């Protein structure tokens, strides 16, 4: 089976129409911000329509105000906005609203297995992503202190 690489900008209208009709879209994410949960060019995600309020550790597919598409984990919810972060990043992203969100990751295909949102394995990956961040942050801070001596 041959697959073509296309830009999300090129298929955005079709993508959003598919989700609005209750469908799903499956693709391989590009980038390393969600390591170790999502591996670039290897794992696939299924994005479903954004029909309910997401829960902590859900992975949202959204579009930034500058037009960039992002798959990141929800780490905090405020009144009308979400705080997002990639599992492999230190920076939080604030002020993501329902207007930015395109869909929610409902399935991850990893090593031939389907990991469904709401399953124990999906929750474990969310927890591991959070722990991975904390460990990396502690190592980074310790290294900075050591190097300042």
Task: Describe what this molecule looks like in 3D.
The chain is of the alpha+beta class and 149 residues long. The chain is built from two helices and eight strands, in the order αββββββββα. Strands 1, 2, 3, 4, 5, 6, 7 and 8 form an eight-stranded antiparallel sheet that branches. The model has no long low-confidence stretch (mean pLDDT 90).
- Kindly report how far apart the N and C termini lie: 56 Å
Q: What composes the largest sheet?
A: 8 strands, antiparallel
Rounded radius of gyration (Å): 16 Å
> How many helical elements?
2
Give the strand tally: 8
Give the SSE order as H and E letters. Answer: HEEEEEEEEH
Low-pLDDT residue spans: none
Secondary structure: helix percent: 25-40%
Q: What portion of residues belong to β-strands?
A: 25-35%
